[in-house]
Hints:
By secondary structure, the chain is α/β, with parallel strands linked by helices. It is 33% helix and 18% strand. It has helices at 31-40, 59-68, 85-93, 106-117, and strands at residues 2-7, 43-49, 73-77, 96-99. A 4-stranded parallel sheet has the order 1-2-3-4. The longest helix has 12 residues, at 106-117.
Amino acid sequence: MICDSHFHVFGPAERYPYAGDLRYQPPHAPLSAYLEEAKKFGIERYVFVQPSAYGRDNACMLDAMREVGPGRCRGIVDIDESASEAVLGRLHAAGVRGVLQKEFTLEQLADAVRRVLGHDEHD
């Protein structure tokens, strides 16, 4: 039950366009190639992390997570701090368990966690 706790996938640019200014040139890194390598090392569980190249468009990562299946993976997304409860609920149902903290204050992050868990700030 080895777990890779941080990796990225990059899909075809025509299907998953990159966001604005890139800090780096994304490599060709499809899920299938990663899974072949992971199998050689006995890696069976995965934590997908949203790459900055896609900005807040988590589609590539979420599609890869669906392909792997919810029993074998979790995800870390990049979202706007004002994401609705409906969006947070859909992400949670997809296996997302973390948020990249780029522009969140700790208070905003704690509020998002409470909303995902369905608790108000007095719980």
